[in-house]
Amino acid sequence: MSRSGCHTERGELRIYESWDEVATELADYIAELSEVSVKERGFFAIALSGGSLISLMGKLCGAPYNKTVDWTKWYIFWADERVVPKNHADSNYKLAKDCLLSKVPLIPSHVYSINDSLSAEEAASEYEFVLRQLVKTRTVGVSEINDCPKFDLILLGMGPDGHVASLFPNHMVLEEEDEWVTFITDSPEPPPERLTFTLPVINSASNVAVVVTGISKAEMLHLVIDDVGPDGSMLPARMVNPGNGNLVWFLDKLAASKLQAFKCTEQEAKTGK
Ligand SMILES: O=C1O[C@H](COP(=O)(O)O)[C@@H](O)[C@H](O)[C@H]1O
After folding, report:
1. 136 alpha carbon – ligand 1 mean position (Å)
2. Is residue 133 part of a domain?
3. Which of 81, 166, 202, 221 should be mutated for ligand 1, with most atoms under 8 A from CB?
4. I want to staple 255 with a disulfide (CB 3.0 to 4.6 A). Which of 137, 172, 212, 271 is the partner?
């Protein structure tokens, strides 16, 4: 059961007792958004990240979702990818394929992985080109305020340093305003070459969910959500702010343990007030 589902300036916080509960609720949330998008638009355009998020999505492979979700309407993209071959252990595509995509009845041509035979720069511009075609046909929606794609859902994780997708703290790509997909060659975490959606694309989505679990992220989450600490201006997780969309944080109690909202609910639970 959710400890709290409170709305803050940084979006809605959904805090759960355990990793398993996060996984259960996340699957339900994704399935619900898929149903709404398919009803409204005929498609569900979803962008994945890598990392711990993918195993947290695992419940989508089982009942009831394997039967109830209209997988044929899913169009899958990556909010970030490492510039490695698709069969490499560091590939976000490989992770998603092994843990999720190969286990549900998706249409293979709807899976838009990043071209691993190109340089980082070429792959970023090709991926953006592909996205532009899909926005033209409205397979991916378009933002009302700029020409950016409007994904039905972008799923992000957050690293302990506050990075989301492959947008790292204080990196100059955080200031990118024109490109939809860009690349870096100096990731502070290996592998160094990566592709990533830019902030304007992330912030144009209809829904963004940031999924964060574990005590190693508690301090950073506190900085991001409670808006404390001296230098938050170039902290990627704090820059996620889908102006015309919804932002939901899926947290387990370990990750949430240093949040003001969590401490308040703990106090209320103890005192009954
Ligand atoms: O490097 C990356 O890290 C983030 C966070 O991963 P996590 O395992 O700490 O949840 C991930 O969201 C991103 O896609 C990935 O490339």
Report:
1. 30
2. yes
3. 166
4. 212
CATH of the domain at 207: 3.40.50.1360
Atom of ligand 1 nearest to the CA of 51: 8
Angle 203-113-242 (CA atoms, 0-180°, nearest 5)?
Answer: 5
Give the Cα separation of 198 and 184 in Å (integer).
11
Q: What is the mean pLDDT of the chain?
A: 94
- Ligand 1 midpoint to CA 157 (Å): 5
Give pLDDT, residue 232.
57
Domain holding 51, by residue range, is: 10-266
Residue 148 lies in a domain: yes
Residue 81 lies in a domain: yes
- On the question of pLDDT at 211 being above 80, the answer is yes
Q: Is the bond preceding 160 in cis, omega lying within 30 degrees of 0? A: no
Q: How many angstroms does the Cα of residue 273 sit away from the middle of ligand 1? A: 38
Task: Pick the closest to residue 120 from 201, 185, 179 (CA basis).
Answer: 185
Cβ–ligand 1 distance for 236 under 6 Å, the answer no
Compute how many other C-beta atoms are within 10 angstroms of the C-beta atom of residue 256.
27
Mean pLDDT across 195-215: 98
Binding site membership of 51 for ligand 1 (Cβ less than 6 Å)? yes
Q: pLDDT band for position 3 (50/70/90)?
A: low
pLDDT at site 261: 84
Q: Is residue 272 part of a domain?
A: no
- Minimal CA–CA distance to 31: which of 44, 42, 21? 44
- For the chain, the domain total comes to 1
Confidence band for 74, pLDDT divided at 50, 70 and 90: very high
Mutation test of ligand 1: which of 54, 80, 211 has the most ligand atoms closer than 8 Å to its C-beta? 80
Picking from 229, 210, 220, 211, the residue whose alpha carbon sits closest to that of residue 257 is 220
- pLDDT of residue 269 exceeding 80, the answer is no
What pLDDT does 228 receive? 86
